[in-house]
Write a structure and sequence with these properties.
heterodimer, A: alpha+beta, Sufe protein. Chain: A, 4-stranded mixed beta sheet, 5 helices, 4 strands, 20% strand, B: Aspartate Aminotransferase, domain 1, Aspartate Aminotransferase, domain 2, 4-stranded antiparallel beta sheet
Chain lengths: 147, 420
């Protein structure tokens, strides 16, 4: 187990310069995610165009893993259909939690940088917080708590 | 600052500890974590146990176990003697007048809940006030909130200062003829602040208001004398003072405990039961329904013996020395901000590091074998006051060394480089 597996360059970069890190006053959907164990608090905003995600952003504060994961989420979902987003949520969940999952990591692009998190069980919730929050937003829930 | 408030243990010259020898008493300190030697700096969450405590528990189960207060057979008598012997050790340790005032509970949390439900619930009603402070652990907030919901009483909270001390003048101003109980921490778990509780107790008792102290972080680190403090209730946990988990102590002034109804019913807390009427047992057993944590009590007694053999004054002096060294070294780390800077502190250092979230810091330190706590430390209002979502907290025990402080400081440098 190497710390560099967790804090890969992509993660460090997205933590330092998170993409789509802004509030979205005219969002169609939004949800708050809270991880009370470490104090991470994120809000995910989604603007829809039909069944496509026209825009997605996030705001809040958290550790490097939760911020980078949210930043990568927004980058990868823009323009995708809601169904594809939900499918990707399932894939990310498997990537973060299932040791024996068969996943085409290179196909995930930059999101694949989160594959090292599985080796750090205490940090899985940090990486999955934004995904649960997105899922809540898409399902009209106002908040989600990952403890 | 009033010098009379300074705990004498910090200024009394005492023979220093032989830390190398002491470390050999703690088997877990030989462990490696991720291939690195363990530096355990999370003692405010839970301390480690010396071999003497582990052996006492093992020996109890291997040779003496039976139920207590029940049988006429030899083992029951042996178990009872060990259990009640542990109570006497605890009594002496905190200088209670009588073992009637030492109630075994699961821990500090249960002790506070017992007082809320047994002392507060029958007495308090709308218009009554319970006064706590902004420094409290959730365990000294939530039981009172529950009690307020149940009785209609109101919770009042005394503010703290930027240094992390209770604002005494504001506390005194909040004491009124409606105040029915003061509940306050002796040592802050999140910041390490040692509260000069004597003056708080004095002003409260002058008004006839009983005082409960949360001593979970105090008992392991300084000499506690409940008679000298003159408090009404004092709560603490075994697992923070080198004893086993699952057991703790409620000290209560006998006159108050006598008036309080039992809070749980069952075996051991009764003298006679008929379907018309039950006669409750004497103190302290009135509050100990069911088979108690006998092995836990035996282990706690062994922990008290262990701490006494070293001497609480020497423990306090050694930890004070570590704190001073940690403060000095950590002050040199660029971007480090101390959270809680009271002049009198237990060996707890809470801090943030610019550019590195505490949670990431915790992972990076763990990778090097250094265990600290990161998060809100079950004191969310304290975090809110300092406007931080979380802090990193290193908390020291007498078995820690200066070189472990050095390791901590070194890894902070690595973390800054990784994220800088």
């Amino acid at each position: 187990m190497d710390l560099k597996d967790l804090y890969r360059d992509v993660i460090v970069d997205h933590n330092r310069n998170p993409r789509n890190f802004r509030e979205m006053p005219d969002a169609d959907r939004r949800a708050d995610g809270f991880n009370p164990l470490c104090g991470d608090k994120l809000t995910v905003f989604v603007k829809l165009a039909g069944d496509r995600i026209a825009d997605v952003s996030f705001h809040g504060s958290g550790c490097a893993i939760s911020v980078a994961s949210a930043s990568l989420l927004t980058e990868s979902l823009k323009g995708k259909s809601v169904a594809d987003a939900e499918k990707l949520f399932g894939t990310m969940h498997d990537l973060l939690t299932k040791e024996d999952a068969v996943i085409d990591v290179p196909a995930l692009g930059k999101l694949g940088a989160l594959s090292g998190v599985r080796e750090f069980p205490a940090r899985v919730k940090c990486a999955s917080l934004c995904w649960h929050t997105l899922d809540a937003a898409l399902h009209h829930q106002e908040s989600v708590c990952t403890e | 600052m009033n010098t009379a408030m300074v705990t004498p243990v910090h200024i009394a010259p005492v023979a220093p500890l032989n830390v190398d020898m002491i470390r050999r008493d703690f088997p877990i300190l030989e462990r490696e974590i991720h291939g690195k030697p363990l530096s355990y700096l999370d003692n405010a969450a839970s301390s480690q146990r010396p071999r003497a405590v582990i052996d006492a528990i093992s020996d109890y189960y291997a040779r003496h176990h039976s139920n207590v207060h029940r049988g006429v057979h030899a083992l029951s008598q042996e178990a009872t003697d060990l259990f009640e012997g542990a109570r006497e050790k605890v009594r002496r340790f905190v200088n209670a007048r009588s073992t009637k005032e030492i109630v075994f509970v699961r821990g500090t949390t249960e002790a506070i809940n017992l007082v809320a439900q047994s002392y507060g619930r029958p007495r308090f009603g709308p218009g009554d006030e319970i006064l706590i402070t902004w420094l409290e652990h959730h365990a000294n907030i939530v039981p009172w909130q529950l009690l307020c919901q149940q009785t209609g009483a109101t919770l009042k909270v005394a503010p703290i200062t930027r240094a992390g001390e209770i604002d005494f003048a504001a506390f005194e101003a909040l004491l009124s003829e409606r105040t029915r109980l003061v509940a306050l921490t002796h040592v802050s778990n999140a910041l390490g602040t040692i509260v000069p509780v004597e003056r708080y107790i004095k002003v409260a008792r002058r008004r006839g208001v009983p005082v409960l102290l949360d001593g979970a972080q105090a008992v392991p680190h300084l000499t506690v004398d409940v008679q000298a403090l003159d408090c009404d209730f004092y709560c603490f946990s075994s697992h923070k003072m080198c004893g086993p988990t699952g057991i703790g102590v409620l000290y209560g002034r006998e006159a108050l405990l006598r008036e309080m109804p039992p809070w749980q019913g069952g075996g051991d807390m009764i003298l006679a039961v008929t379907f018309d009427k039950t006669v409750y047992n004497d103190l302290p057993w009135k509050f100990e329904a069911g088979t108690p944590d006998i092995a836990g009590a035996v282990g706690l007694g062994a922990a008290v013996d262990y701490l006494n053999a070293i001497g609480m004054d020497r423990i306090a002096a050694a930890e004070h020395d570590l704190l001073a060294y940690a403060n000095e070294r950590l002050a040199t780390v660029e971007g480090l901000q101390f959270i809680g800077t009271a002049p009198r502190k237990a060996a707890v250092v809470s801090f943030t590091l610019r550019g590195v979230h505490p949670h990431d810091l915790g992972t990076i330190l763990d990778h090097e074998g250094v265990a600290i706590r990161t998060g809100h430390h079950c004191a969310m209002p304290v975090m809110e006051f300092f406007n931080v979502p979380a802090t990193a907290r290193a908390s020291f025990a007498f078995y820690n060394t200066r070189s472990e402080v050095d390791r901590l400081v070194d890894v902070l440098g690595t973390a800054r480089e990784m994220f800088g």
